[in-house]
Design goal:
Layout: H1 3-19, H2 22-27, E1 40-41, E2 46-49, E3 52-56, E4 60-61, E5 75-77, E6 88-89, E7 104-107, E8 110-114, E9 132-135
Parallel strand pairs: 6-7
Antiparallel strand pairs: 1-4, 2-3, 3-5, 7-8, 8-9
Amino acid sequence: MKRSEAAELITAVINIRNNADDETAAKNVVAFPAYRKDTAYKAGDRFRYGGELFKVLQDHTSQEDWKPENSPSLYAKILPGQSGTEIGEWVQPDSTNPYMKGDKVTHGGKVWVSSVDNNVWEPGATGTESLWTEVK
């Protein structure tokens, strides 16, 4: 790789890290730094962990026992179908990363659109008819 190509690649990665919406970020997970302990994180920062993209929910300095799976109040996994990301298979969200109105997912062989904000319910489940709309 030529030096000019490397510089262009570095510039593109920095641009994605600093300016990308969640949709673009989710398509470029490798552009984000890996989670690290003893790191000062700001709300809105994003990092990769276990091959997935996470968003920081509140300012803090990470600690050994504050990994994403142990600290849902600090981090939210960006799920497929959220914030305009490509339609992905529905994943049970936590209270910190619910689906919002307009988010699209696949589930049970169908495509669903969330009809409400803060949706943590399974598409197609009994009693969720007003929460998800099946796309035909």
